[in-house]
Amino acid sequence: MPRTTTLVFAGDSITDSGRDRDDVASLGDGYVSLIARAVAEGGETVVNKGISGNRAVDLEARWDDILAAGPDVLTVYIGVNDMWRRFDSDDPTSSEDFEATVAGLLEASRAAGVERIYLIEPYFVPVRDDQVAWLDDLNPKRDAVRRLAERFDATLVELHDAVTAAAAEHGAAAIVPDGVHPTPRGSEIIADAWLAAYAATADAQKVGSA
């Protein structure tokens, strides 16, 4: 019997999405559950390790637990709370500190033998006029995620532009009512972006091994 591929998703509330943290099989009702349905026929095992409110430093504090889930494919989706806490709690995270922390997580993951890593680009859609300036804090963190993807040969899942465009077309209330937390339609955008990146990576691997 072939070995099952384990997909582990680490992140904040967008990943958590109401999962039961006392049930390791619980995936919540967001993008992770949609991905699990999409890959079910391939036999992949999906593990949700998202926790609402997490920043990069919170992932760092529990990274051993995340790696203990045995990821063959690891997805890291973090960054919006590193922005948000600056504005709701006066507790900022610099883009330099954010990048250094996530780099440490990726270094530990590679050292643990994780071969395939996906980094999801954080997004934010301002829903109030005063929030437009918040992007000045998020954008350098988005840039950091891009640099980290290149540095660690990880697959970048681009998301910010897709979510922003969908919100502009359909209204933020239909996609991300508070600018961050997705509706079911918003979760589909995230899942579709990840699945497209996953399929492209799989196709590239097939070509490389041919």
Automatic annotation (TrEMBL):
Residues 9-188 form the SGNH hydrolase-type esterase domain. It comes from the Bacteria. This is SGNH hydrolase-type esterase domain-containing protein. It comes from Microbacterium jejuense.
